[in-house]
Amino acid sequence: MQQALLAGILVALLCSYLGVYIVLKRIVFVGVALSEISAAGVALALFLGFSPLLGAMAFMMAGIGLLTVQWSPRRVPNDSFIGIVYVLASALAILLVAKSHEGETHMLQLMQGLKPAWWDLLLFFTIGLAIAFAIRAVGVLLATTLLIVPAVTALLVTNRLKHAMLLAVVAGVLPIAVDLHFSIVWDLPASALIVALSFLLLLPALAYRRLSS
Q1: How far apart are CA 180 and CA 4, in angstroms?
Q2: How far apart are CA 61 and CA 93, in angstroms?
Q3: Structural domain boundaries of the chain?
Q4: pTM higher than 0.70 for the full model?
Q5: With CB atoms 3.0 to 4.6 Å apart as the test, which of 68, 98, 141, 172 could cross-link to 150 if both were Cys?
């Protein structure tokens, strides 16, 4: 319980902080795509029998390379290519898990439990690295949630970046601390319960923004 709490809080601190940048730069789909790419790397590592973390990091690096290339922005929006990478990574993860009985068990546990272009590359690298470690610690569902929901909650309440970062961290850590206890008491999956509370924290922020606009 103590290890789970510590890991969850550390991931929440990192992902919630980075999530503010993800939302502000309008690259939420990039964060989701990198999560799925890292999951595919985990699946490949389990299939081949080496460290899941190494697999996640290797695929994450390849994914960053794919997502930072401007393939054909004039004819097709870059979001379309991000979507293609996302679904391809999802399919690859499913196929690899299907061929590995041991991988299926581990993956189910993981799913639950100085030009502008260079700055974007650095941001994507930081996000990807955080995601790789976050998925290894808490799984895809929770890592993706912590990258998006706390940041959106904070940015709905305040327009100041410093305040948004602080509120995002609070909105990320609070569900971890509360729901780990209730997941044991109520015998419910911790990740799903944390996601549900994160959404409940988002609702008052939505109402506040609606009333103040």
Answers
A1: 8
A2: 16
A3: 2-212
A4: no
A5: 172
